[in-house]
Amino acid sequence: AAAYFLFVRRKSSAIHWLRPSEIAAWIDRYDTFLFDCDGVIWLDTNPVPNVAATLAHLRSLNKRVLFVSNNATKHRSQYLDKFSAMSIEASLDDVVTSAVGAAAYFVEKHGKGAKCYACGTQGLVRELEDAGATLVRPPNELDTHILVSGPQLVTVDSEVKAVVAGADWNLTHRKLSYAVQCLLKVPGCEFIATNGDRLYPAGDGNMYPGAGATVRAIEFCGGKEPVYIGKPGPMLLDLLERTRGMDKSRTVMVGDRVD
User: Fold this and answer.
1) What are the residue numbers of the active site?
2) 245 near 230, Cβ under 8 Å?
């Protein structure tokens, strides 16, 4: 683990180098350490220097280490594969994504077996199914064929309780249309967003449209504001507090940006 790190005081711009004894005293004040993944644990496929040793050191002090990410495109098992490749110890329960939070929120509110429609990747779909939600899958939703006469008629399932949206690499007009029609036609249909991230940093160095692109399109056309699950809102932390007994006053969140 690193012997020193920078601490920026909130009330001034002064930067104070902490001594090892100060670091130990600071760590001792907390029980749980929450780490973002992209930009904190790894950069694309490369681990951040000394990250495995730092996590192991915290665990040797009986600190709980959890990984909290806004990235809802991957299932937790895919995170475990990446952790394993970097020699980082982790279990499914250690990984909490905005997809996990969205699935937990939906099932807690509407019950297991309740129907929802997902505009997102298979990672989001799998987390919803793992939590007990029933996924509605309209026929030909991935068909990109454009009809000369205009959009195809959409008939929605009247039992859909919510539209759950996140980054969607296969977003089509038909998927958007189904999501929007659910919000417009099904009384009480809720709109849940994994997160509102505007851009997604890819391994090729480019920044691509993130979950916000899907969410804002549905929000604008459907006329309904979503419930945001991911950071920087409180929903994921509230979920951890309820399900893991986490004390927020004794918890540290480590991220690469404040938004």
Assistant:
1) 31
2) no
